[in-house]
Amino acid sequence: MKGLRKYLTPFAPDQSGAVSVLYELGGLTVIIDAGGCTGNVCGFDEPRWFDKRSAIFSAGLRDMDAILGRDDALIQKIVDISDAFDANFIALVGTPVPAVIATDYQGICHILEKKIHKPVIYVPTTGVGLYDEGMEMAYLALFEKFADNKPTSHTEAILGVTPLDFTHAFSLPTFNNFEDFGCVGSLKKLYVASPAALKAAKRLHNRYGIDYEVRIPGLSLDIHDVHHILFIGQQVIGHTLRQQLAIPFDIASFFMMKPTLREKGDVHLIEEDDLIELVKKNDYDMIIGDPIFKDMLQDYQGQYLELIHFAVSGRRDFS
C-alpha cells in the first residue's frame, strides 16, 4: 500500500537537515513555526542537542499570526532576541506554515538586516522534504552570503558532513566553523561527502575554480569473501565503498540519488515494499545499512553489517 509504513519511523525532514548544517556556526537560527517543528529538531533530529547547545528558537506563530501574515510581529521578535546574542548571523528556517502562506523571506531578511545590522539568510524548507534537501538549501544559502577567498592554512576540506549521516570526526575541515565559509575560495580541493553538497561544490568550482571529488577520504571497510553487496543509505557513502571494494555493489536509498553516481542495479526507494522486493529478487550475500532496515528483511539469510544512519533511525553509535 502506498505510503504505508510498518517498520520505518519518519525520516529527519528538511528543516532538520538545514539546522544540522547551521548548528555549530555561531548563528542565531529561527525556525518559523508554532513550536512543534523546533521541538522535533531539538528533541529527536539533532544528536548534538544534549551535548553542545546552539541558539535555536521557534518563531512561536499563533493561528492569527499565520492567517493574517503578521510579519511585523515576527520581525520584532527576532530583533528582540538578537539583542541577547552575539551571533555571527541570523538564519530563518522554513516549515509548512510559511510555505502555505507564502512568507516573503527575502523581504523579511532585508528589513532585519537594516534593523539589527547583521547578515540574515533564509533556508526555504517546507517541512515536507527530507533532510538532505534541507542540507542542500542551507549550504547554498551560506555560500551565497559568506563565501570568500580569505587566506587559510588548509588546502582541502570536506563538504557535506553532519551528524545526520556521520558518527565520526574527520581530520580535514568540514565547514562546522563559520570562518571556513569565508576561506573556501582559497582551497584547492573539496571532497563532497553527501549528494546534498554536490550543487554547492559545483557553484564553488564555477566561482573559484576549486576542484572537487565525490568521495569520503578515509572511509573503508575490511570485507572478504563477499560476492554481491547491497548498501542501503546515503549515496556518497555507498559510492565511496563501492570504489574501494570493486565487487558487485548496489546502492539503494530513500534519499537523494544523483544520476552521475548511479550505476546499473542502483535503486531509488520510495516505499518499504521497494526494499523488501529488491532483496527478495537479488542474491545478496551481504547488506550494509542502518539496523532498522534489518527489522524489515526478516527473510534475508545473508550477512548484515550495521552502519548507523541517524537521519533514518535516530540511533547513535556509542562505540
UniProtKB/TrEMBL annotation:
Pfam annotation, one family? Oxidored_nitro
Q: Which organism is it from?
A: Sharpea azabuensis
Stored PANTHER family: NI-SIROHYDROCHLORIN A,C-DIAMIDE REDUCTIVE CYCLASE COMPLEX, COMPONENT CFBD
One GO MF term attached to the UniProt entry: oxidoreductase activity
Nitrogenase/oxidoreductase component domain: which residues? 49-162
| Annotated protein name in UniProt | Nitrogenase component 1 type Oxidoreductase
